[in-house]
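1st attempt posting a full record on here, be nice pls
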Amino acid sequence: MSWLSRVRNAIPFVPKAQTAENLWHKCKGCGQMIFTKELEENLYVCPKCDFHERIGPHLRFDYTFDEGSYSALPSPRVADDPLKFRDTKRYTDRIKAARTATNEPDALLNARGTIEGRKAVVGVQDFAFMGGSMGQAVGEAFVAGVEAAIADKCPYIIFTAAGGARMQEGILSLMQMPRATVAIQMLHDAGLPYIVVLTDPTTGGVTASYAMLGDVQIAEPGALIGFAGQRVIEQTIREKLPEGFQRAEYLLDHGMLDMVKHRKELRHTLAELIDYLCAGTKAAA
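the predicted structure (as tokens):
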């Protein structure tokens, strides 16, 4: 038994539901131990070093929409294993495991609601679901989110987080790149903006498609954003890459992003952008 467990067990007023594992969180940025409650109150941003932890769709919706204003959109149904793919495990088993772990149908969820009174449809990729990988379900959800935004005459905002295309779906996953591009054009044809918030990490085919096609490109501090990995690039060009390469701040300095915003500022920033880009979306009182 560890010393932390002995101390915890000796405290009579700690509820049984609280354990050493969920009372504390070790920051991945600075390595400091933080009270989980303190981290939650700070929107899962380290109060010591400002490291932005990865969060799932439901927390993202809570932090983005006005309280009690949003409702989830149904997730489109697609074939689970169109190629009957198997590596060390069957693809269907991997999907079942991911669904059990996240309690979500796939890696992209949409919701509609208001952001400081402005109507919006928001999509969030969940990195916890097979690395947020882009397969048919993600492509269908993206198109469904755009169609919902067009129907509501409001912007579509996407929070990206992905390791790229889903290899188990082969060419079918790569086809989601042009499909998303066409959907964005549909949004523009309707005179509505498309806003991208890149979170850690956004890489691969997602970066090569809808993650870099926003009318406004925002990123959270420290987010890893790129196509190929840094090691692959260094081996290819046989040069050492600059410090902070592929991080949000570096990309902002080199013109790939419009702004880098702290999680606490994102909601207000999105509301201001909707005002600038899409007049007339103020929700009815």
